[in-house]
UniProtKB/TrEMBL annotation, chain A:
InterPro entries hit by this protein: Adaptor_comp_med_subunit, AP2_Mu_C_sf, AP_mu_sigma_su, Clathrin_mu, Longin-like_dom_sf, MHD
Source organism of the structure: Pagothenia borchgrevinki
Protein's name according to its UniProt entry: MHD domain-containing protein
One Pfam family this sequence matches: Clat_adaptor_s
Keywords per UniProt: Coated pit, Membrane, Protein transport, Transport
Domain MHD: start-end pairs: 184-442
Family: Belongs to the adaptor complexes medium subunit family.
Biological-process GO terms, alphabetical: intracellular protein transport
From TrEMBL, chain B:
Membrane topology: Peripheral membrane protein
GO cellular component: cytoplasm; endomembrane system
Identification of the protein by name: Beta-adaptin appendage C-terminal subdomain domain-containing protein
Highest taxon listed in the record's lineage: Eukaryota
Renumbered residue ranges of the record's region Disordered: 565-587, 763-799
One annotated GO biological process: protein transport
Main subcellular location: membrane
Gene3D superfamilies: Leucine-rich Repeat Variant, TATA-Binding Protein
Keywords from the named record: Membrane, Protein transport, Transport
Annotated ranges, domain Beta-adaptin appendage C-terminal subdomain: 632-819
A Pfam family this chain is assigned to: Adaptin_N
InterPro entries reported for this sequence: AP_beta, ARM-like, ARM-type_fold, B-adaptin_app_sub_C, Clathrin/coatomer_adapt-like_N, TBP_dom_sf
UniProt similarity note: Belongs to the adaptor complexes large subunit family.
Length: 443, 826
């Protein structure tokens, strides 16, 4: 049961406040109490559950905002956290985006949403199918003119890939506008994988985990059924080996309860009737093994030069297929405490690197890293009083990157069929992306 | 608090709201109302616009209506009289043909929070319960709970309660769940909604129709139900099995909670349920939401308290991701420490070492203390890592390492050599008081082995004037005193200086008092001082024990799926502020279900019978069994605390190592016995089953090593009550240790028992072994062949006061239990 519910910006501004229980147990100063508790702690990671007397705060961070519920000690943390997460994704569906600005501009819509979702502190319904009958306010899109939109225009203004590739912002729009404006009816199927890998200093893969999900974002008013066909050689669990090679294998799979699985066993087809907005259709996990070689290898040489400087010569190789590339790659390498400055040589001009004294690390940024290539960097770090044991403090290197149009598990969507056949132009998009914020290369 | 210029804003908005041109244009009217709300949410006080907003409420535009209602509900409490005006509009809306309008009106009518309006609300609420549209019924049902809350003292209408009970059969699942919620609130004084058999079965059958939140609510309410028969219980359990592995963590947790409640009398079923939720919990640990991950981790920690082996194979899932917040990393490390076994220790330690250099100092320190935790069973590997970390010469790491070493040495004295070596030279890096206190403690205890100890102390003493921490000063005093006792020549001068400073100049009362105390103590002479100051330097008896005994599920079942497991931060489980190491304490909970005393003569008979049947009997045990003619009973009361046990155990040990055999003969009040029991592979038994078996015959196990570790130990105690014919009942206390060193260590054991010869009273069985096993290689091989595949467990018993027949009786009971256990395993 939820007593109060509020959304705070990261600066502590009150964006939305609802005393949903109608009990008036605590005054509205709960917001201040909460924010004081958050700011009293060092770092940017306050504990998820905090209490102030009998008042228990549970919060999640989404979109840089605090989504906070106050509750009693005996309520289920699973339910409340799931509720807050679901609320955030509902707000994202309805406002199109999850930023402070979007929440501020759509406060009326969010109040309306909260009114329908929570009554007297009890969750009523959070399915977007039910809610769409009740929500009347239109979303205000906060997106101003953005230079990023221009990046889709090709060389000399030629529309090279415009029709084949949807802009990345296409799926972040409010679900409601499609109804009112008779806007484009579109459907997005996203296969998103998160990878976390640890590679030992000898190059051996020590740990690899892939968590993937298939998300459907639907902007179609009248889509009764859709069928998603996955790879036919998709297998679950370690025992089901089918023939050689190309099988796509995952350890565990779970589906959204609305997915009908009668064709899944025979031909790997998921049937569902998508509701408007975003929903996760399937989640899967793969642990300990990667079907292909890990995408990056590091060849480091670390030594002390005669002048007492720390020399780091790093060669990073990308083992992706040649047609793919990693983008927005950011490598961070911890350096010994007391590092003062750094000089560097990088193998190509688009890379950049800088020494961050606060986090005691070098941030090496590579905007685009095509498969089958190799980059190198030489960092000379000035460390007063560098001792041999300080070399132990160097590393491990952590990569943070995105692999567009690629899934490491190899999962593919074979086809996407909608029924009834949509009148007018219905656009179906399938997007693949793998990202990792924990790709650790030991040195 | 009104902002500057709020009056202007208010005036402007009022003018706009009253403007007939705006009122006639729906879009502009709505936008004006929106402006009012925006001002309200920005903190401007717009309560003055109440009457204008009441007028704006009478509109056909639903969006505007909703906006106005948000406003009215916020300010109704300030304007109770004006709120009466709204009621008319709301009551009219309750008749509206559009169900959405009806539900909206009904909801806001009950949200106004004015008890004066209750009389106007009751009639529409009653009508709402019978409305055609489900969405109106949902609101109406909860409306009754709200009304009840407004007037908590008023009598609840029995008719309404009846109607709510009827609505539990409503076709709409949300209405049903809301009825449960409303009844819980209204009938709070009677203990909530009545959960009888028909209602339970009805709710269970409709569970599938509800959404996640509805299911959680139903499962929570059902916890109060107690099935009448075991068949019914199992029907319910099998019905719930699907939700136990639900992909939605809230449903999974609520179901498990219900399972544990229902199976409180059937611990085996409860444990099976824990096994079942392993997969969904692990999935939740990999959820994209980090808050959900934390919740799952905290609950896994609970589960591990009862099933330590639950996640052993999945330890890699608890490796930290780089970008994870510190609170998740620390939890994961706590779980990793629990999961260590021989197979994965290398991987886990390697991983933990990587975290020790984390940029976040809290994470780094948590990793170091996690390594220390593992060091209790794998001391060599961990010490290697810890000494390596000292080489980094970083304040926070060195401090954490020194504190960890202090804690480790306290339980594993065999580590002291390595630690003493490592201590040299780390005092320069230590800055914080915790770390320095730990260093001082180590110097006090192992001062004679650290050659540079006096120089280190000298630096401390020279800087004592600028020292701010009281804890460090007190520790410094004690350390200097203790070092003075073992190295007087080097420390005499500095001790004098320190005492002078403490007594003459120090302002803190505690430090000064302690200085005085030591000063006077020194006056009494060196022997006296030694007696007071020479404390124990370690706690070897519990050194190899890392795992707590597995707790019964009921210990934590009540806090499962509440906020409690999330609240106890990592700080609380590993308190950072202490001067000297804590004792590793275990809380034996005497099982009150068992009868306090148990006559075991029957078991003894059973033992001899089973021995004969198995054919691997040893004559001595049989002889013992037959000699136990008088009935012997064991009992667990009074309970022996771990500290007391420790004291008794060590006291006995000292006694036997220091005194001669003849002297021991004179010791009439206590007895000691070493015995080897052959055959049982009990070292591979799970601690739970061992503990359960022991408790069955009223032997309390105090501490275990986890299974499959070598040497494997169990400490236990019991009280015997022995009625000699004619005499008054005679009771003794027995404390004991089971030791299994494994095949590889056989030689060591044999040599050791050989050297113990003449010190301890050996059982006849032991004599036999020593005859066969001369401590030479040839003899060893021979004895190994003789024993074949048999394994032995060494039993050391101490009894107080001495009573040989009771001791023998106890031994035979113990043998029976162990044999039974190992045959079960086979």
């Amino acid at each position: 049961m939820i007593s109060q519910l509020f959304i705070l910006s990261s600066k502590g501004d009150n964006l939305i406040y609802k005393d949903s229980s109608v009990r008036g147990e605590a005054g509205s100063d709960v917001i201040n109490v909460f924010y004081e508790k958050v700011t009293a702690l060092p770092g940017d990671q306050p504990p998820v559950v905090m209490n102030h007397g009998d008042l228990h705060f549970v919060h999640v961070r989404q979109g840089g905002l605090y989504w906070v519920a106050t509750t009693t000690a005996d309520s289920s943390p699973f339910s409340i956290i799931e509720f807050l997460n679901r609320l955030a994704s509902l707000v994202k569906d309805y406002c199109g985006d999850l930023t402070e600005k979007a929440v501020q501009m759509n406060f009326a819509l969010i109040y309306e949403l909260l009114d329908e979702v929570v009554d007297y502190g009890y969750v009523q319904s959070m399915s977007s199918d039910v809610l769409k009958n009740f929500i009347q306010t239109e979303a205000v899109s906060p997106r101003p003119f953005s230079l990023f939109q221009l990046s889709n225009v090709g060389l000399f203004g030629a529309e090279t890939q415009q029709s084949k590739v949807a802009p990345s912002s296409a799926a972040s729009r409010p679900i409601q506008s499609s109804r009112e404006q008779g806007g484009k009816s579109e459907i997005f199927v996203d296969v998103i994988e998160r990878m976390s890998v640890v590679i030992g200093s000898n190059g051996v893969l020590m740990k690899a985990d892939v968590e993937g999900e298939i998300k459907v974002k639907c902007y179609m008013p009248n889509c009764s059924e859709m069928r998603i066909g996955l790879n036919e050689e998709f297998s679950i669990g370690k025992s089901q080996l089918r023939g050689y090679g190309a099988a796509v294998r995952v350890d565990e799979v779970s589906f959204h309860q609305a997915v009908k699985l009668d064709e899944f066993d025979s031909s790997r087809i998921l049937r569902l009737s998508p509701s408007q907005g975003e929903q996760t259709v399937m989640q899967y996990q793969l642990s300990d093994v990667l079907p292909s070689a890990p995408p990056f290898r590091l060849f480091p040489t670390i030594e002390r030069d005669s002048g007492g400087k720390l020399l780091m010569y790093l060669k990073l190789r990308c083992d992706l297929p040649p047609k793919s590339a990693a983008i927005n790659l950011c490598a961070s390498i911890p350096v010994p405490k007391g590092s003062v400055s750094m000089s560097l040589e990088l193998s190509s001009p688009d890379q950049s690197a800088e020494l961050k004294l606060q986090s005691r690390s070098i941030e090496w940024t590579i905007p685009r890293f095509p498969g089958g290539t190799q980059l190198s960097a030489l960092f000379k770090v000035e460390v007063p009083g560098l001792s041999p044991s300080s070399l132990m403090e160097v590393g491990p290197m952590v990569l943070n990157f995105e692999l567009p149009k690629l899934t490491v598990s190899g999962l593919q969507v074979r086809f996407l069929r909608l029924s009834p056949v949509q009148p007018g132009p219905a656009q179906r998009w399938v997007r693949y992306v793998t990202h990792s914020d924990s790709y650790i290369l030991r040195i | 608090m009104p902002y500057l210029g709020s009056e202007d804003t208010e005036r402007e908005l009022r003018r706009a709201l009253c403007n007939p041109h705006i009122q006639s244009d729906p879009l502009r009217y709505r936008n004006t109302v929106l402006k009012v709300l925006r001002a309200m949410s920005q903190g401007v006080d717009v309560s003055g616009l109440f009457s204008e907003m009441v007028k704006a409420c009478a509109t056909v535009d639903i969006v505007q209506k909703k906006l106005v209602y948000v406003f009215l509900c916020s300010y109704a409490a300030l304007n109770p009289e004006l709120s009466l005006l709204v009621i008319n509009t709301l009551r009219k809306d309750c008749q509206d043909p559009n169900p959405m309008v009806r539900s909206l009106a009904l909801r806001n009518m009950t949200n106004l929070r004015l008890s004066s309006l209750v009389e106007y609300v009751e009639q529409p609420l009653t009508a709402g319960l019978r409305d055609r549209a489900a969405c109106v019924r949902r609101v109406a049902v909860l409306g009754w709970a709200k009304i009840h809350n407004l007037q908590p003292n008023s009598e609840t209408d029995a008719a309404v309660v009846n109607e709510l009970y009827t609505l539990l059969r409503d076709p709409d699942p949300v209405v049903m769940v809301n009825c449960l919620r409303a009844l819980e609130e209204i009938l709070k004084e009677e203990g909530g909604v009545a959960i009888n058999k028909p209602i339970t079965h009805h709710l269970l059958n409709r569970l599938k129709e509800c959404d996640v939140w509805g299911q959680c609510e139903v499962l929570r309410v059902l916890q109060r139900y107690r099935p009448q028969t075991e068949d019914e219980l199992f029907d319910i359990l099998s019905l719930l099995d699907a939700s136990l592995v639900s992909p939605h963590p809230p449903v999974m947790a609520a179901t498990l909670s219900l399972f544990l409640g229902l199976c409180s009398a059937l611990p085996a079923v409860g444990l099976a349920a824990l096994e079942r939720v392993r997969a969904p919990l692990l999935t939740a640990c990999g959820s994209p939401s980090r808050e959900m991950r934390l919740t799952a981790l905290c609950h896994i920690q609970l589960l591990l308290r009862s099933l330590p082996g639950l996640m052993g194979a999945h330890y890699k899932r608890f490796f930290c991701g780089y970008a994870e917040p510190a609170y998740i990393k620390q939890r994961k490390m706590q779980v990793l420490v629990e999961l260590v076994n021989d197979d994965n220790v290398a991987m886990i330690l390697d991983e933990l070492r990587g975290y020790c250099t984390d940029v976040n100092t809290d994470t780094a320190q948590a990793a170091i203390s996690a390594i220390g935790g593992i060091g209790r069973s794998y001391s060599d590997r961990c010490l290697e890592i810890l000494t390596g970390l000292l080489g980094l010469k970083q304040e926070h790491i060195t401090s954490a390492v020194v504190q960890t070493m202090r804690d480790l040495v306290w339980v594993c004295p065999q580590c002291s050599d390595t630690v003493c070596e490592a201590l040299e030279g780390c005092e320069d890096t230590l800055q914080d008081s915790q770390g320095r206190q730990a260093l001082l403690w180590l110097l006090a205890v192992y001062g004679e082995r650290v050659s540079s100890a006096p120089y280190t102390l000298e630096v401390f003493i020279d800087g004592v004037r600028s020292e701010t921490s009281v804890g460090v000063k007190m520790e410094l005093l004690t350390t200097t005193m203790r070092l003075f006792l073992c190295r007087p020549a080097e420390t005499q001068d500095m001790l004098g200086r320190l005492l002078h400073y403490c007594i003459e100049e120090e302002t803190d009362m505690c430090v000064r008092d302690q200085g005085h105390l030591y000063y006077r103590l020194l006056h009494r002479g060196i022997e006296e001082t030694q007696k007071v100051l020479q404390g124990r330097r370690s706690d070897p008896s519990l050194g190899v024990l890392i795992g707590r005994p597995a707790e019964p599920v009921s210990q934590w079942a009540c806090s499962f799926n509440t906020l409690d497991p999330l609240k106890q931060g990592p700080v609380e489980t590993e308190p950072p502020s202490r001067g000297s190491p804590e004792h590793v304490t275990f809380d034996p909970k005497p099982n009150t279900d068992l009868s306090e005393t148990l006559d075991c003569s029957q078991i003894v008979k059973l033992h001899s019978a089973s021995d004969r049947a198995s054919g691997c009997s040893d004559s001595s045990a049989e002889g013992l069994a037959s000699s136990v003619a008088p009935p012997l009973s064991l009992s667990l009361t009074p309970v022996l605390s771990p500290e007391e046990f420790e004291r008794l155990w060590l006291q006995r040990q000292d006694l036997h190592t220091e005194q001669d055999a003849e002297k021991r003969e004179e010791e009439e009040d206590c007895a000691c016995l070493v015995e080897h029991i052959r055959g049982p592979a009990i070292a591979h038994c799970s601690p739970q089953s061992l503990q359960a078996a022991m408790q069955l015959v009223n032997i309390q196990t105090l501490a275990f090593t986890p299974p499959h570790t070598l040497p494997w130990r169990v400490y236990l105690f019991t009280h015997t009550q022995h009625t000699h014919s004619g005499n008054a009942p005679h009771s003794t206390l027995i404390v004991g240790e089971l030791l299994y060193t494994g095949e590889a260590n056989r030689r060591v054991r044999l040599v050791k028992t050989g050297s113990d010869d003449g010190v301890l009273v050996e059982g006849s069985e032991e004599e036999h072994v020593r005859e066969g096993g001369d401590p030479t290689p040839a003899g060893l091989r021979e004895s190994a062949r003789e024993n074949g595949e048999e394994e032995e467990v060494k039993v050391t018993l101490k009894q107080q006061p001495r009573d040989d027949s009771a001791l023998k009786g106890f031994l035979s009971i113990l043998t029976t239990v162990l044999h039974t256990l190992s045959s079960e395993r086979a």
